[in-house]
Design goal:
Number of strands: 2
Oligomer: single chain
Strand content: under 5%
Strand order of the largest sheet: 1-2
Largest sheet: 2 strands, antiparallel
Distance between the termini: 175 Å
Number of helices: 11
C-alpha cells in the first residue's frame, strides 16, 4: 500500500534509516500511475530510473539533471507552467525556481537548498513524493482500499479406493491407534504391505470368530475413511487445470482468430496502398530525382575543383609564410641599424680618436723638428770639419 503523506526524517533517527528507500519505491509506483514511462521517458527521451535511483549517489551531475527534469515534469502535471531545465543551467538558479514552484503548491520546505545539489537523498525524494501526490490529486486519482479475496474452501472427498489412500497418513494413524498395545506383532506396517503386494503368496485360513471379526470391522471402518486435501503438486489437479486452460484457449481462439484475420487484411490493404503510393511518387518525382542526381554530380565536380585549388592555396600560403619570415628578419635588421645610426656613442668615440690622433701628430711634428735641428747641426759641424781639413791641406802645399 502506498504511503500518501511522506515525512522527512532527521539524520539521527536510526530507527527509520530505511524509510527513504520505502518512499523511493512509493515514488516509482506513483510515477507509473502518472504514465511516467510514455510521457517522460519516451516523449522527453529521458533514461529510465530504478527504484533506488535517488538514494544511491553515483553521478551527481546526471542525477541532479534527472531530478530537475522530473520535478519540472511533475510541476507541469500539477497544471502549472514550468520550463524544462537544461543540463548546463546554473544549479542554484534551477533549485531556486523549483523551490518557488514547490512553495506555490503549499509544500513546506524546511531544509537548506544546497541539500538538493547532489540530486540524491531523502530531501530529493521528499520533494518528488509531494509533487507526485499533488499531481495525482490534480488528476482526481484516489487510492482505494485493498480488496482481500477470501481463500477458496478446500474441497474434501471421501476416498474408499485403496489406490487413492495417502500411505504416510494411514501409517501414522495406525501407529497412533496401536501405540497402547505392547505387542509389537499387532502393529500394522504399511511399508511391509506395499512390499508384499508385489510378491503374491498363498493366503492361509485362520480360525477366527465371525462376531469378533465383524466387531473389529465396525470399529476400524471409520478410521479407514481418509480425507485427502488437494495438493497443488498433484498431477490430477494440474491436468484438470490444463484442460480448463485448453478449453478457454479454444473458446477465445475463434474470436481472436477473426480479429487477427481482420488485422491481417487491413495490413495487406495498407501495404498495397503504400506500394501504389510509392510507385506513384517514383513516377512523379522521376524528373526531380534526375535533376538531383545531376546536381550531385556537379557538387562532386565542384568539390574536386575545390580540393585542387585548395592545394594551390596551401602552397601559396606556405610561400607567404616564408616571405613573411624573411620580411620580419629584414625589419629587425633595419631596426638594429636605425638604432645604431641614432646612437651618438660612435661619434663621440670618433672625436676622441681624432683628438688623440692630433695630439700624436703634434708630438711627431715636435720630434721631427728636433730631429731636423739635430741633423742640421750635424751637417754644419761636418761642413766645418771638412773646411778645416781643406784649409790645412792648402797651407801645406
Amino acid at each position: 500500500m502506498l504511503r500518501t503523506e511522506p515525512k522527512i526524517l532527521s539524520d539521527g533517527d536510526q530507527e527509520n534509516s530505511f524509510a527513504p528507500f520505502v518512499l523511493m519505491e512509493n515514488l516509482i509506483e506513483k510515477l507509473k500511475i502518472l504514465n511516467f514511462d510514455e510521457e517522460f521517458t519516451t516523449d522527453l527521451k529521458m533514461k529510465r530510473i530504478h527504484r533506488y535511483y535517488f538514494m544511491i549517489p553515483k553521478n551527481p551531475g546526471e542525477q541532479f539533471y534527472m531530478f530537475s527534469a522530473l520535478t519540472a515534469w511533475l510541476i507541469r502535471k500539477c497544471g502549472k507552467k514550468f520550463d524544462q531545465p537544461q543540463e548546463y543551467d546554473d544549479p542554484n538558479t534551477t533549485i531556486a525556481n523549483i523551490l518557488d514552484a514547490v512553495r506555490e503548491e503549499n509544500i513546506s520546505v524546511d531544509f537548506p537548498p544546497n541539500k538538493l545539489k547532489q540530486g540524491v537523498g531523502e530531501y530529493v525524494t521528499y520533494i518528488l513524493n509531494n509533487l507526485a501526490d499533488k499531481a495525482l490529486n490534480y488528476t482526481n486519482f484516489t487510492f482505494d482500499k485493498p480488496i482481500i479475496e477470501p481463500d477458496p474452501q478446500e474441497e474434501s472427498e471421501i476416498i474408499t479406493d485403496e489406490s487413492e489412500i495417502v500411505l504416510d497418513k494411514v501409517e501414522e494413524e495406525m501407529l497412533a491407534y496401536y501405540s497402547d498395545e505392547s505387542d509389537d506383532d499387532n502393529v500394522f506396517n504399511l511399508n511391509a504391505t506395499q512390499q508384499n503386494k508385489s510378491t503374491p503368496r498363498q493366503i492361509e485360513s485362520i480360525n477366527i470368530d465371525q462376531e469378533n471379526w465383524n466387531l473389529e470391522i465396525e470399529r476400524v471402518l471409520p478410521r479407514l475413511r481418509i480425507t485427502i486435501r488437494n495438493d497443488n503438486r498433484d498431477w490430477r489437479s494440474n491436468l484438470e487445470q490444463m484442460k480448463q486452460y485448453r478449453n478457454t484457449i479454444n473458446q477465445n481462439l475463434t474470436t481472436t482468430k477473426h480479429h487477427l484475420e481482420k488485422v491481417q487484411k487491413d495490413v495487406v490493404t495498407t501495404l498495397e496502398k503504400i506500394s501504389n503510393r510509392e510507385k506513384y511518387l517514383n513516377r512523379e518525382l522521376e524528373g526531380v530525382l534526375d535533376e538531383y542526381r545531376n546536381l550531385q554530380d556537379q557538387l562532386s565536380k565542384t568539390k574536386d575543383t575545390y580540393r585542387s585549388l585548395s592545394g594551390g592555396v596551401t602552397e601559396r600560403t606556405r610561400e607567404l609564410a616564408q616571405l613573411t619570415d624573411r620580411l620580419e628578419t629584414v625589419k629587425q635588421e633595419m631596426e638594429d641599424r636605425g638604432s645604431s645610426m641614432t646612437d651618438g656613442t660612435p661619434l663621440v668615440n670618433i672625436k676622441r680618436a681624432i683628438t688623440k690622433i692630433k695630439s700624436e701628430i703634434m708630438e711627431m711634428d715636435v720630434r721631427i723638428g728636433v730631429l731636423q735641428c739635430l741633423l742640421l747641426q750635424l751637417k754644419i759641424r761636418d761642413k766645418k770639419i771638412l773646411e778645416d781639413d781643406l784649409g790645412q791641406s792648402m797651407g801645406v802645399i
